[in-house]
Amino acid sequence: MWSLSSITDIVQTWLGSTFNPTIALLLQFVMAGLLVITLFAVLGLVLVFMERKVSAYMQVRIGPNRVGPRGYLQTAADTLKLLMKEGLVPAGADKFLFNLAPYVVMISAMLLMAPIAFAKDFQMWDLNIGVLYVSSVSSIAVIGILMAGWSSNNKYSLLGAMRSGAQIVSYELSAGLSIISIVILVGSLKISDIIASQQDGWWIFKGHIPAIIAFVIFLIAVTAETNRAPFDLAEAESELTAGFHTEYSGMRFALFFLAEYANIFIVCAIGATLFLGGWMPFHIGNLQAFNHIMDYIPSSIWFFGKTFFLIFVIMWFRWTFPRLRIDQLLNLEWKYLLPISMFNVLLVTIMAIMKWHF
Amino acid sequence: MFLKEYFKTIFGTVKSLLTGMRRTGYYFTHGKEIITQEYPNEYPVLADRFRGEVVMIHDEKNEHRCTGCSACEISCPNGTIKIISKFETGPDGKKKKAIDKFVYHLELCTFCNLCIEACPTSAIKMDQAFEHSVFDRSRLTKVLNKPGSKIMEGVE
């Protein structure tokens, strides 16, 4: 099976034989960092373009089609424009926090890249509490958002940030509970164990209805956590101009924008890992012939295919559903999603104890 | 009883959300439904009642139907139309009022259609031309009656 791990092995042996271990390790850090930054830049360009095209087609429009062939260079041109723009700091702003906030949001998104398995044996840090790490680090982003809202010295920003805080704190619960239901089935928090447990079928198929319920709740909760429509109260354009990033311009605004899309990618990658088997090809039980054919498709294509499918679903949500009011939003979480997911965890636990899953 | 309501709400919500997603999904997969008209590349299909500018109808003998009654000038809410009239001596020796210039200020016009409705002889109509950008504002002041044109026979 074609794999990226051969490349990483070659690089590692070459580094190990050329430099002493400390420098080799540092060089590996630098390389991983550069790869993450490159991935972020590419993701920003691709996802923004994808969003604009998807939204256009869903609204019976064409979308960007002027810059470059079929509009493919549109986002590159937008990025260039944002780079050229002046980054304005409002006079009444808390300058230190104002400048720090986009980096906090961005860095928390970058940290989340560490435990994600992009392909077979292609993972930066396979730590034994992978899923816990993801769900805890992803909540750091809300501090950045609150910082941005507070330091802007603007009532719209503050309102947006407070809403975002209320929203993320609430939805973290049901996202966490639906993650836990898979962790119960696997019996491990380690990402590689979770993927390995889906060797004979993805959890969404193996886990019967409770896994499907958990998957749906996870999708709803992460849509809310990434502040996207229909839960985009934090930046509701029609109410709060742009919410917490009203006062941001130029590259600082671009960082918020990029972090939003990077977060979408990350939560979809986590969703794909937990429910759809990560880089694991589509396997059906013990059908060796079928499984063997599926193995010919590279694992990275499986991973990115699943992730982009989930991203598409989340975009589909955004361009179909109207925005919720803040009380409806909290109603949905505390009266519906949380009780259902708690009950669901109970079901999954019974299922795991009785070994009813495949 | 409470649980029944609770689950009814959930299923009703899911059903209505899925209906919406089916609609957008249909549009996403059916590219031919797109209604965008790529204007500079292709001339757009305009609605029948699209109002671009006021023109005066002239027939092939360079005759119009405007009697110079200035009903349009009076009906115009923002002074777009100015009629400069003159007196002509007809073949029977009678002096008759006629238009010298029908001045139309396109830059003031809001395309409200009131002048067309006010015209008793249907001399003017709305045209669909909409590409009105010019480099100099004075070019938007137009004289609608063509040079040398005269009133149609029998229009009073």
Description:
In chain A, 69% of the residues lie in helices and 1% in strands. Chain A has helices at residues 5-18, 21-58, 74-84, 95-111, 130-137, 141-151, 155-186, 191-196, 203-206, 208-225, 237-240, 250-275, 288-295, 299-318, 326-354; strands spanning 117-119, 122-123. A two-stranded antiparallel sheet of chain A has the order 1-2. Chain A is globular, with a radius of gyration of 21 Å. By secondary structure, chain B is of the alpha+beta class. Chain B folds into 2 domains: 2-33; 53-151, Alpha-Beta Plaits, CATH 3.30.70.3270. Helices cover 24% and strands 22% of the residues of chain B. Chain B is built from 3 helices and 7 strands; from the N terminus they run αββαββαβββ. At the A-B interface, helix 2 of A face helix 1 of B.
Please give the structural blueprint.
The complex is a heterodimer of chains A (358) and B (156).
Chain A: H1 5-18, H2 21-58, H3 74-84, H4 95-111, E1 117-119, E2 122-123, H5 130-137, H6 141-151, H7 155-186, H8 191-196, H9 203-206, H10 208-225, H11 237-240, H12 250-275, H13 288-295, H14 299-318, H15 326-354
Antiparallel strand pairs in A: 1-2
Helix pairs in contact in A: 1-2, 2-3, 2-12, 2-14, 3-12, 4-6, 4-12, 6-7, 7-10, 7-15, 10-12, 10-15, 12-14
Chain B: H1 2-29, E1 53-56, E2 63-64, H2 71-75, E3 81-89, E4 95-105, H3 114-118, E5 124-127, E6 141-143, E7 150-151
Parallel strand pairs in B: 2-7
Antiparallel strand pairs in B: 1-5, 3-4, 4-6
CATH topology type of the largest domain in chain B: Alpha-Beta Plaits
What is the SS-derived class of chain B? alpha+beta
Mean pLDDT figure of chain B: 84
Strand count, sense and barrel status of the largest sheet of chain A are: 2 strands, antiparallel
User: How many strands appear in the DSSP assignment of chain A?
Assistant: 2
Which geometry of chain A do the CA atoms define? globular
Please give the alpha-carbon distance between the first and last residues of chain B.
80 Å
Name the pair of protein chains with the most residues at their interface, and give those residue counts.
A-B, 15 and 15 residues
Question: What proportion of the residues of chain A form beta strands (DSSP E)?
Answer: under 5%
Strand content of chain B: 15-25%
Radius of gyration over C-alpha positions of chain B, nearest whole angstrom? 27 Å
Assign the CATH class of the largest domain in chain B: Alpha Beta
